Amino acid sequence: MSARRASGSHGRDPRSARRRTLPQLLFAHAAEYADRPFLRAKRQGIWNAHSWREVAARVRTLAHALRRHGVGRGDVVVMISENLPELYLLEYAAQALGAAVTCLYPDASSAELDYIVQHSGARLLVAQDQEQVDKALALEGAAAPQLQTIVYLEDRGLWDYTDARLLPLPALLEEGGQADAQAEQDLQRCIDEGQDTQVAVLCYTSGTTGRPKGVVLTHRYLTDNAYRLLASFEVPRDIAYLSYISPAWAAEQIIGLALGLMAPSVIHFAEKPATVQADLREIGPQFLLFTPRQWEMMDSALAAAMLDAAPWRQRLVQWALSNGARAGWRARLAELLIKRAVRDNLGLRHVVVALSAGSGMSAEVFDRFHALGVPLRNLYGSTEAGLLTAHWGGAFDPATLGRLLLVDPEVGPVLQAEVGDDDQLRVQGGSGFAGYHRDPAATAEACQDGRFATGDAIRVAEDGEFVFLDRVKDLRVLQGGRRFPPQFIENHLRASPYVRDAIAIGDERRPHVTVLVNIDARIVGRHAEQQGLAWGTFADLSQLPEVHALLRQTLAQINARLDPHARALAFAAFPKELDADDEELTRSRKLRRDVIEQRYAALIDAMYEGAASCPVEVLVRYRDGSQAHVRQQVRITPV
Amino acid sequence: MNQAVLAAADLCLSFGAIKALDQVSFSVHAHELLSIIGPNGAGKSSLLNCLSGFYRPQSGRVSFLGQDVTRLPVHRYAALGVGRTFQGIQTYASMSVRENILCGFHTRMKGGLLSGLLYWGPGRREEDAFVREAEEIIEFLELEELRHAPLGELPYGLRKRVDLGRALAMRPKVLIMDEPMAGMNPEEKSDLARYILDIKEGRRIPVVLVEHDMDVVMDISDRVMVMEWGRSIAEGTPAAVRADPRVVQAYLGEAG
After folding, report:
1. Region for A145 from its dihedrals, namely left if φ exceeds 0, alpha if ψ lies in -120 to 50, beta otherwise
2. Rounded to a whole number, what is the distance in Å from the CA of B43 to chain A's nearest CA?
3. Where are the beta strands (DSSP E) in chain B?
């Protein structure tokens, strides 16, 4: 019997934002911390630090410039870029003027950009490079005349562009540098007049269902949520943080931009996305938030590296991670000889707070990181209601999401959770949910009696620990009315180094469960190479009988942990990689089931008919707009 | 039109009875990408070799930034600012990407053996400056994640990119590239084409390109010169050259 309600507590950490906006915090702290480093970025092989004083001065200059370009209270600035220090500066600058920002994933399509520019009403856009500028210049319809200024950060390839709206960042800084004393006074008034109930960020949800909705994140939301982590995890001061997850995600806004000001942190930026793994090791961050997928990729990268190691090294690492080396002198020896070196190689040697947030994570991967000595903790929340629960206060169980987080007493009441008869979690407390931008109907639907409906099926255990079952709408019923947990099967499959993604199939029309697997071509390829197998393309590799034997073994192990009715009885492997460009994944790499099930309907039917194989033809779209067909006879293997 | 950066007038070059170059004139201007095309044996490489001082023409004149350089020894060309990449791979397999690019600075290095061994004072400052410049090139060619990777482990397309980086280290005022895309797959070709355009547009270095891939040539060139049997038979924009009946007959092949 589980509890239907749970309440959190208030935190006692003194680092409350005390109802200030992010720019107010920045300028107050800049006076105090002066020459201590705040932002560190690697460029041309060298780490450059920017002190609090420099950052504050730069933000002022940019704010002046943005003001000249018409940015003011209530406006929205859209930014589309990788994580760069300039993005932080521009965000604080826009917020100093009372404006809000909206960040997009760098791989967002022109259509997404078009929708968000129109919906947010932005007139100024910040684009990282030529790729993003091209997207912005390609906007048509209402968004085109609305955009008046496009600020770009990198000039490669843009040397000969002549569009009058384009403005390089150095030119923007120069304009800002011309501000006079009057402008300085006006800006200071803008900053002082800022209220923490103002909109700081519009966070467009990735939209696994329908059109993206712009979630309003106020300054109070950001600082309250940052406080929940500060207080619950007792985050140390001057902690090294790697800005890696996209600021398009609320988590980076909370942990990077807000918590960075409050902890404070030293925020690091990798040289470019391809160098993150190497830079991670140089930084040795103390605070990290990755999505489960990113942790899993790190885990498979480790597994892949181990395949290349000498056999005695492999055995040594296996021993160090095994139960035999978890206590006493053996544990100390394993730590000294192996674990510390492995953590160092992964860049996790100094980690104090390591969080996994997003969708569910497999217990195997979680356990493996713990065996390595990485204090990995689950974090659960929603863009709308903020961060809700985590493994804080020492306890952790990979199967749970932890307990309700501590709330800033200066912000509002404690977090309260209630699970209804529909298994749905509803929450209230803290800074709460401020609504969807320009969408009162959706706001009212999601938030009734002040409680926000998360859409998550959650079980609250007697000790207050939250257990994630599935999305309410995703719990699946098989023919005959018995339920099965698709995510459980998928997460455990993904824990295998050979599997990149998996999707469990089954509904009222289906008597049992089947599975579609997207193999990890790098690791499966290496395995096949060692076996001396021949293949040419991803499609060939995915259909090799030896590869299927491997997958079958993995699936059989998972089946052994399930009730008989919920076991997968057959599977097939996708003949191409699932790709966000083909709309099979969201930009944050979540599966889009409806698209996949529709596209591979014939294959799914064949699995239930007990066929041995099925011809599949899929359309592949490339970034440059060209298309190709993948045709393949897809093998179906019973488990 | 502005002054030619690199020009040749009435070049003649014979090997025995074979006329490799017959009265060939040529010029490349600032902000220009000039491609030279033609069938095998048309004299493209001979022309490049004359332009970069490897061959001495029997008659005619090569001038660089207005200066007559026809009779200069070959090593002076590089010092003046004529950069060149060669067919195939001419990089050091056991050295890292950054070290390979640093090799390109040797024409500009002043320190001798002694200061190199001591690694102190001016010798050290010089190396620091060159490393910074090499890092700029690494950023320009987007090789950051590979800066310490041994070149021998990299695929052909990347090694060619490093080769290009080494040519840039000389700070050339004109860049001559001999079939840079031979043996590359389409993706590597389009990558390299992108960097060649960036060199022209971003670094303002004119480029002379000999290349067999017509799609690439027609796509990125400002001007194309067509050679056959040691002569220049046509010159103009890609569209004009493509439409020229002599070119169609001599090189692109008759329809049907």
Report:
1. alpha
2. 33
3. 4-15, 18-29, 33-37, 59-64, 67-68, 82-85, 174-178, 207-210, 223-228, 231-236
**Chain B residues touching residue A272 (CB < 8 angstroms):** 142, 144-145
Computed over its alpha carbons, how large is the radius of gyration of chain A? 25
Select the residue from A156, A162, A272, A276 to test the B interface by mutation, using most B Cβ atoms within 10 A.
Answer: A156
Calculate how close chain A gets to B41, using CA atoms only, in Å.
Answer: 36
Residue A182 vs residues A64, A179, A188, A192: alpha-carbon distances, Å = 11, 8, 10, 15
Question: For residue A140, what are the CA distances in angstroms to A111, A388, A625, B221?
Answer: 10, 40, 17, 30
| A166 close to A150: Cβ distance less than 8 angstroms | yes
The answer to whether the CB of A567 falls within 8 A of the CB of A600 is no
Q: Do B145 and A45 touch (CB under 8 A)?
A: no
Q: Which residues contact A438 (CB under 8 A, 6 or more apart)?
A: A119, A214
Residue of B nearest to A161 (CA): B201
Residue B64 contacts residue B58 (beta carbons within 8 Å): no
Query: What are the C-alpha distances in Å from B119 to residues B109, B124, B133, B169?
Result: 14, 5, 18, 21
CA dihedral A134, A139, A140, A143 (to 10 degrees): -150
Phi, psi of B79 (to 5 degrees): -65, -35
How far apart, in Å, are the Cα atoms of A272 and each of A42, A256, A380, B131? 9, 17, 28, 19
A174: how many CB neighbours lie within 10 A of its CB? 12
Q: Which residues of A134-164 are buried (b: 16+ CB within 10 A; e: fewer)?
A: ebbbebeeebeeebebbbbbbbbbbeeeeee
Q: Say which amino acid occupies A420.
A: G
- pLDDT tens, A92-102? 999 999 999 99
Nearest CA in chain B to A277: B145
SS3 A393: coil
pLDDT of amino acid B2? 65
Residues of chain B found within 8 Å of residue A43, distances taken between Cβ atoms: 139
Helix (H) or strand (E) holding A148: none
CB contact under 8 A, B145 and A275: yes
Residue B253 pLDDT grade (very low, low, confident, very high; cuts 50, 70, 90): low
Partners of A424 in beta bridges: A457
Q: Which residues of B touch A278 (CB under 8 A)?
A: 145
Task: For residue A156, list chain B residues with Cβ-Cβ distance below 8 A.
Answer: 140, 198, 202
Gap from B198 CA to chain A (nearest CA, Å):
6
Query: C-alpha dihedral over B108, B110, B113, B114, to 10 degrees?
Result: -160
Helices A486-494 and A545-559 pack at an angle, to 10 degrees, of 130
Q: How far is CA B104 from CA A551, B119, B135, B138, B149, in A?
A: 50, 19, 13, 13, 17
Chain A CB contacts of B138 under 8 Å are: 44-45
- Decide if A157 and B198 are in contact by the 8 Å CB cutoff: yes
Decide if A272 and B145 are in contact by the 8 Å CB cutoff.
Answer: yes
| Per-residue pLDDT reduced to its tens digit, A437-490 | 999 999 999 998 889 999 887 878 778 888 776 777 777 888 887 777 788 788
Could you tell me which chain A residue has the CA closest to the CA of B148?
A: A45
Q: Where residue A1 falls among pLDDT bands split at 50, 70, 90?
A: very low
Distances (CA, A) of A452 to A383, A415, A429, A593, B229: 11, 11, 10, 25, 80
